[in-house]
Specification:
single chain, six-stranded antiparallel beta sheet, four-stranded mixed beta sheet, alpha+beta, 5 helices
Protein backbone atom coordinates (compact mmCIF):
# COMPACT_ATOMS: atom_id res chain seq x y z
CA UNK A 1 0.00 0.00 0.00
CA UNK A 2 1.21 3.53 -0.76
CA UNK A 3 1.34 6.23 1.90
CA UNK A 4 1.92 9.73 0.54
CA UNK A 5 3.18 12.55 2.75
CA UNK A 6 4.14 16.13 1.94
CA UNK A 7 6.83 18.38 3.44
CA UNK A 8 6.35 22.12 3.04
CA UNK A 9 9.28 24.48 2.71
CA UNK A 10 9.28 27.86 4.42
CA UNK A 11 8.66 29.46 1.01
CA UNK A 12 5.66 27.20 0.46
CA UNK A 13 4.19 28.07 3.84
CA UNK A 14 4.62 31.78 3.16
CA UNK A 15 3.03 31.32 -0.27
CA UNK A 16 0.01 29.46 1.13
CA UNK A 17 -0.47 31.53 4.29
CA UNK A 18 -1.24 35.07 3.20
CA UNK A 19 -2.31 36.39 6.62
CA UNK A 20 -0.44 36.96 9.86
CA UNK A 21 2.42 34.65 8.95
CA UNK A 22 3.27 36.71 5.86
CA UNK A 23 2.79 39.95 7.82
CA UNK A 24 5.24 38.72 10.47
CA UNK A 25 7.81 37.73 7.85
CA UNK A 26 7.49 41.06 6.04
CA UNK A 27 7.93 43.00 9.29
CA UNK A 28 10.99 41.04 10.41
CA UNK A 29 12.64 41.26 7.00
CA UNK A 30 12.01 45.02 6.92
CA UNK A 31 14.20 45.18 10.05
CA UNK A 32 16.86 42.81 8.70
CA UNK A 33 17.13 44.59 5.35
CA UNK A 34 18.02 47.92 7.00
CA UNK A 35 21.37 46.55 8.20
CA UNK A 36 24.50 46.96 6.10
CA UNK A 37 26.28 43.74 5.09
CA UNK A 38 23.57 41.49 6.51
CA UNK A 39 23.58 37.96 5.06
CA UNK A 40 20.39 35.99 4.40
CA UNK A 41 20.91 32.28 3.65
CA UNK A 42 17.77 30.47 2.49
CA UNK A 43 17.31 26.71 2.60
CA UNK A 44 14.26 24.44 2.28
CA UNK A 45 12.95 24.65 5.84
CA UNK A 46 14.45 27.91 7.10
CA UNK A 47 16.04 31.29 6.52
CA UNK A 48 19.27 32.06 8.38
CA UNK A 49 20.34 35.64 9.16
CA UNK A 50 24.04 36.30 9.80
CA UNK A 51 26.94 38.72 9.59
CA UNK A 52 29.68 36.58 8.08
CA UNK A 53 30.38 33.94 10.75
CA UNK A 54 28.45 35.89 13.38
CA UNK A 55 25.04 34.33 13.89
CA UNK A 56 21.83 36.34 14.24
CA UNK A 57 18.70 34.22 13.86
CA UNK A 58 16.92 31.33 12.18
CA UNK A 59 13.38 31.79 10.83
CA UNK A 60 11.09 28.80 10.32
CA UNK A 61 7.39 28.17 9.84
CA UNK A 62 5.13 26.06 12.05
CA UNK A 63 1.37 25.73 11.61
CA UNK A 64 0.34 29.26 10.54
CA UNK A 65 3.02 31.03 12.55
CA UNK A 66 6.64 32.00 12.26
CA UNK A 67 9.09 30.59 14.79
CA UNK A 68 12.33 32.52 15.28
CA UNK A 69 15.46 31.24 17.02
CA UNK A 70 17.76 34.06 18.12
CA UNK A 71 21.51 33.86 18.80
CA UNK A 72 20.88 35.41 22.20
CA UNK A 73 21.34 34.12 25.75
CA UNK A 74 17.82 33.37 27.07
CA UNK A 75 19.01 33.93 30.63
CA UNK A 76 19.64 37.58 29.80
CA UNK A 77 16.17 38.20 28.35
CA UNK A 78 13.21 39.32 30.42
CA UNK A 79 10.39 36.77 30.76
CA UNK A 80 7.91 39.31 29.39
CA UNK A 81 9.16 38.50 25.90
CA UNK A 82 7.48 35.08 26.02
CA UNK A 83 10.57 33.20 24.88
CA UNK A 84 11.50 29.54 25.34
CA UNK A 85 14.99 28.37 26.29
CA UNK A 86 16.06 25.66 23.79
CA UNK A 87 19.74 25.70 24.69
CA UNK A 88 19.65 21.97 25.53
CA UNK A 89 18.52 21.14 21.99
CA UNK A 90 21.60 20.28 19.95
CA UNK A 91 20.28 21.77 16.70
CA UNK A 92 19.77 25.17 18.36
CA UNK A 93 22.71 25.37 20.72
CA UNK A 94 23.85 28.51 18.84
CA UNK A 95 20.30 29.89 18.66
CA UNK A 96 18.97 29.14 22.17
CA UNK A 97 16.17 31.71 22.38
CA UNK A 98 12.95 30.64 20.66
CA UNK A 99 9.90 32.80 20.07
CA UNK A 100 6.68 31.65 18.42
CA UNK A 101 4.97 34.63 16.76
CA UNK A 102 1.21 34.15 17.02
CA UNK A 103 0.07 37.59 18.21
CA UNK A 104 0.77 41.27 17.63
CA UNK A 105 2.57 41.38 20.99
CA UNK A 106 4.82 38.50 19.94
CA UNK A 107 5.64 40.30 16.70
CA UNK A 108 6.69 43.44 18.61
CA UNK A 109 8.87 41.31 20.87
CA UNK A 110 10.37 39.56 17.85
CA UNK A 111 11.34 42.93 16.36
CA UNK A 112 13.08 43.95 19.60
CA UNK A 113 14.93 40.63 19.83
CA UNK A 114 15.94 40.77 16.17
CA UNK A 115 17.40 44.24 16.73
CA UNK A 116 19.33 42.94 19.77
CA UNK A 117 20.62 39.93 17.81
CA UNK A 118 21.67 42.09 14.85
CA UNK A 119 23.55 44.46 17.16
CA UNK A 120 25.23 41.53 18.98
CA UNK A 121 26.47 40.24 15.60
CA UNK A 122 27.99 43.65 14.80
CA UNK A 123 25.23 44.78 12.42
CA UNK A 124 24.68 48.26 13.86
CA UNK A 125 24.97 50.41 10.76
CA UNK A 126 21.58 51.23 9.27
CA UNK A 127 21.20 51.91 5.57
CA UNK A 128 18.30 52.82 3.32
CA UNK A 129 16.91 49.39 2.51
CA UNK A 130 15.18 48.46 -0.70
CA UNK A 131 11.42 48.33 -0.24
CA UNK A 132 10.66 44.65 -0.84
CA UNK A 133 7.07 43.42 -0.95
CA UNK A 134 7.26 39.73 0.01
CA UNK A 135 3.72 39.17 -1.22
CA UNK A 136 5.24 39.68 -4.68
CA UNK A 137 8.37 37.66 -3.90
CA UNK A 138 6.12 34.74 -2.92
CA UNK A 139 3.05 35.17 -5.15
CA UNK A 140 -0.02 33.03 -4.62
CA UNK A 141 0.25 29.52 -6.04
CA UNK A 142 -1.79 26.39 -5.57
CA UNK A 143 -0.63 23.40 -3.55
CA UNK A 144 -0.14 21.38 -6.74
CA UNK A 145 1.94 24.15 -8.33
CA UNK A 146 4.21 24.23 -5.28
CA UNK A 147 4.69 20.47 -5.54
CA UNK A 148 5.51 20.83 -9.23
CA UNK A 149 8.25 23.43 -8.63
CA UNK A 150 9.70 21.54 -5.65
CA UNK A 151 8.71 23.88 -2.80
CA UNK A 152 6.59 21.06 -1.40
CA UNK A 153 8.25 17.65 -1.39
CA UNK A 154 6.09 14.62 -2.10
CA UNK A 155 7.20 11.40 -0.46
CA UNK A 156 5.76 7.99 -1.23
CA UNK A 157 6.20 5.26 1.35
CA UNK A 158 5.30 1.64 0.72
CA UNK A 159 4.06 -0.33 3.71
CA UNK A 160 2.93 -3.87 4.37
CA UNK A 161 -0.85 -3.94 4.55
CA UNK A 162 -0.64 -6.80 7.02
CA UNK A 163 1.14 -4.71 9.66
CA UNK A 164 -0.42 -2.14 11.94
CA UNK A 165 1.69 0.44 13.72
CA UNK A 166 -0.97 1.31 16.26
CA UNK A 167 -3.38 -1.34 17.44
CA UNK A 168 -4.11 -4.79 16.05
CA UNK A 169 -6.70 -4.53 13.32
CA UNK A 170 -8.02 -7.91 14.45
CA UNK A 171 -9.77 -6.09 17.29
CA UNK A 172 -12.08 -4.62 14.65
CA UNK A 173 -12.82 -7.81 12.74
CA UNK A 174 -16.00 -9.74 13.12
CA UNK A 175 -15.64 -13.39 14.11
CA UNK A 176 -15.30 -15.73 11.13
CA UNK A 177 -18.58 -16.96 9.70
CA UNK A 178 -18.68 -20.74 9.41
CA UNK A 179 -21.08 -22.19 6.87
CA UNK A 180 -21.66 -25.99 6.94
CA UNK A 181 -22.75 -27.49 3.59
CA UNK A 182 -24.34 -30.93 3.01
CA UNK A 183 -21.18 -32.53 1.40
CA UNK A 184 -20.04 -31.54 4.20
CA UNK A 185 -17.58 -28.71 3.39
CA UNK A 186 -16.56 -26.07 5.90
CA UNK A 187 -15.88 -22.65 4.41
CA UNK A 188 -14.47 -19.85 6.54
CA UNK A 189 -15.20 -16.28 5.50
CA UNK A 190 -13.43 -13.40 7.21
CA UNK A 191 -14.72 -9.87 7.33
CA UNK A 192 -12.57 -7.46 5.27
CA UNK A 193 -9.74 -5.59 6.95
CA UNK A 194 -10.60 -2.15 8.28
CA UNK A 195 -8.94 0.50 6.09
CA UNK A 196 -6.60 2.68 8.12
CA UNK A 197 -5.16 6.14 7.56
CA UNK A 198 -1.88 7.53 8.82
CA UNK A 199 -1.90 10.57 11.12
CA UNK A 200 1.30 12.51 11.76
CA UNK A 201 1.09 14.88 14.72
CA UNK A 202 3.72 17.58 15.32
CA UNK A 203 3.54 19.54 18.56
CA UNK A 204 5.46 22.65 19.54
CA UNK A 205 5.43 24.13 23.04
CA UNK A 206 5.31 27.83 23.73
CA UNK A 207 6.92 28.59 27.07
CA UNK A 208 8.53 26.15 29.47
CA UNK A 209 9.91 23.07 27.70
CA UNK A 210 9.41 19.46 28.74
CA UNK A 211 11.07 16.19 27.76
CA UNK A 212 7.97 13.99 27.52
CA UNK A 213 4.47 14.32 26.05
CA UNK A 214 1.60 11.84 25.86
CA UNK A 215 -1.38 11.45 23.52
CA UNK A 216 -4.91 10.61 24.73
CA UNK A 217 -7.60 9.80 22.12
CA UNK A 218 -11.22 8.79 21.92
CA UNK A 219 -10.05 5.87 19.75
CA UNK A 220 -8.99 4.13 22.96
CA UNK A 221 -11.82 5.64 25.02
CA UNK A 222 -9.31 8.03 26.65
CA UNK A 223 -7.73 5.09 28.47
CA UNK A 224 -4.60 5.83 30.51
CA UNK A 225 -3.51 2.24 29.87
CA UNK A 226 -3.29 2.84 26.11
CA UNK A 227 -1.78 6.32 26.10
CA UNK A 228 0.93 6.88 23.45
CA UNK A 229 4.16 8.78 23.99
CA UNK A 230 5.37 11.36 21.47
CA UNK A 231 9.01 11.49 20.35
CA UNK A 232 11.06 14.61 20.97
CA UNK A 233 12.82 15.86 17.83
CA UNK A 234 14.92 19.00 18.28
CA UNK A 235 12.51 21.40 20.04
CA UNK A 236 9.20 19.84 19.01
CA UNK A 237 7.45 16.50 19.45
CA UNK A 238 6.15 14.07 16.84
CA UNK A 239 4.12 10.88 16.60
CA UNK A 240 2.85 8.74 13.72
CA UNK A 241 -0.24 6.64 14.39
CA UNK A 242 -2.92 4.79 12.44
CA UNK A 243 -6.66 5.16 12.87
CA UNK A 244 -9.67 3.79 10.97
CA UNK A 245 -10.64 5.70 7.86
CA UNK A 246 -13.77 7.89 8.21
CA UNK A 247 -13.23 8.06 11.97
CA UNK A 248 -13.98 11.23 13.97
CA UNK A 249 -10.73 11.54 15.90
CA UNK A 250 -10.55 13.53 19.13
CA UNK A 251 -7.38 13.97 21.16
CA UNK A 252 -5.57 15.92 23.85
CA UNK A 253 -1.92 16.12 24.90
CA UNK A 254 -0.64 15.74 28.45
CA UNK A 255 2.66 16.15 30.28
CA UNK A 256 1.97 12.88 32.08
CA UNK A 257 0.33 9.51 31.52
CA UNK A 258 -2.78 10.81 33.25
CA UNK A 259 -4.94 13.93 33.11
CA UNK A 260 -3.01 15.82 35.80
CA UNK A 261 -0.82 17.52 33.19
CA UNK A 262 -3.33 17.95 30.35
CA UNK A 263 -2.90 20.89 27.97
CA UNK A 264 -4.73 24.17 28.55
CA UNK A 265 -5.29 27.32 26.52
CA UNK A 266 -3.34 30.53 25.99
CA UNK A 267 -4.67 32.06 29.21
CA UNK A 268 -4.65 28.87 31.25
CA UNK A 269 -8.27 28.08 30.43
CA UNK A 270 -9.77 24.66 29.75
CA UNK A 271 -9.97 23.88 26.03
CA UNK A 272 -12.08 21.60 23.87
CA UNK A 273 -10.76 18.35 22.44
CA UNK A 274 -8.91 18.64 19.12
CA UNK A 275 -11.19 17.13 16.47
CA UNK A 276 -10.45 15.85 12.96
CA UNK A 277 -12.47 13.74 10.52
CA UNK A 278 -10.10 11.19 9.01
CA UNK A 279 -11.00 10.56 5.38
CA UNK A 280 -7.33 10.46 4.25
CA UNK A 281 -3.77 10.57 5.59
CA UNK A 282 -3.32 13.71 7.64
CA UNK A 283 -0.52 15.84 9.08
CA UNK A 284 -1.52 17.95 12.09
CA UNK A 285 0.52 20.74 13.64
CA UNK A 286 -0.35 22.04 17.10
CA UNK A 287 1.01 24.63 19.54
CA UNK A 288 0.53 24.14 23.29
CA UNK A 289 0.58 27.16 25.60
CA UNK A 290 -0.11 25.93 29.14
CA UNK A 291 -0.66 22.82 31.25
CA UNK A 292 -2.85 21.78 34.15
CA UNK A 293 -0.64 21.78 37.22
CA UNK A 294 -1.83 19.25 39.82
Amino acid sequence: MEKITYSKSLKAKLTLERGFMMESYQTLMDVVNTRKDVLLVQSFYKDRVANGKNKVAIIKGFKKNLVVYFALDPNKINEKYGITDVSETKAYVNYPTKLIIDSAKDLKNAIRLMEKALAKAGLNEIVGAEDIDYNLVYPEKSFDELVEIGLIKKRIRYIDENTDDYYHVEEYKEKPVVEVKPNPVVEVKEAPMIEMVNVKLKVMIKGKMTDRLFLFTNYTNWSEDKVLELTKVEDYFIINAKFPKNFNLEFKISLSQNWNGVEKGMFGEEIKNHQYYLDKDLEIEDIIYNWRDK
